[in-house]
Amino acid sequence: MFGISDYGAFCVAVIVFLMVPGPGNLALITSTAKGGLKGGAAATLGVIAGDQVLMWMAVAGVAAILQAMPSVFQAVQWLGAGYLVYLGIKMLMAKPGGAPVFHMEPRRFFQQSMAITLLNPKAIVFYMAFFPLFVNPKTHLGLLSFAAMAATIAVITALYCVVAVGLTHVFAERMRANPKVGAWLERLAGLTLVAFGVKLVAGK
How confident is the model at residue 126, as a pLDDT? Predict the structure, then answer.
């Protein structure tokens, strides 16, 4: 279909990739908890935009360059790990009632989630290692095939994020009645971000 080898498997791979716990999911959930549906919508657009940038970079051959230059890829991984640790520490040090790490302005949610997506080694590895597996050299249609893959990823991501944002919004509305619970959840989110960053560094 569209020159994609096993389109069904491609869709399943994208869904599984989205469901794996990671910084992107955490940013989406936190943005919704802090900014409501608008924050979640902005974060969703940020995730989709980040995914599209990574995919078209792979199409342009950036993935091949990174594979040929391990030091460049390692630098990207370290940059991503450092950014996650930075965000986590800010959340841990945030004072109760102070300005949230993830600001309430929707434009900020978009930038935050897009940056996390772009700097997430898990996403980069996905497009470097798995994306080429679904390209069929015999039936490939050039840019049309790549456009179909990009559109598929965008649609699946949007549907996934809509469900995640909806569930998080309902949960957040109940948690707002207890500020202490919200503070502990923010600290937990901060620890999770730091853990992601440390794990990435330790794995080098």
Answer: 67
Cα 27 to Cα 126: distance, rounded to the nearest angstrom: 19
| Side chain identity at residue 160, one-letter code | Y
Could you report how far apart the first and last alpha carbons of the chain are, in Å?
38
Q: Which of 127, 130, 134, 143 is CA-nearest to residue 5?
A: 134
pTM reported for the whole predicted model = 0.67
CA–CA dist 61, 159 (Å, integer): 29
Q: How far apart are CA 31 and CA 101, in angstroms?
A: 10
Quote the CA–CA distance of 17 and 6 in Å, as a whole number.
Answer: 17
Residue 152 makes CB contacts below 8 A (sequence gap 6+) with: 7, 10, 11, 14
Q: Answer yes or no: is 127 within a domain.
A: yes
Closest CA to 165 of 46, 48, 36: 36
Residue 1 inside a domain? The answer is no
How many Å is the Cα radius of gyration of the chain? 18
Residue type (1 letter), 177: A
Q: Give the domain range for residue 40.
A: 7-202
> How many distinct structural domains can be found in the chain?
1
pLDDT of residue 86: 79
* pLDDT tens column, 144-196: 877 888 888 899 989 998 998 888 877 766 655 555 656 676 677 678 778 76
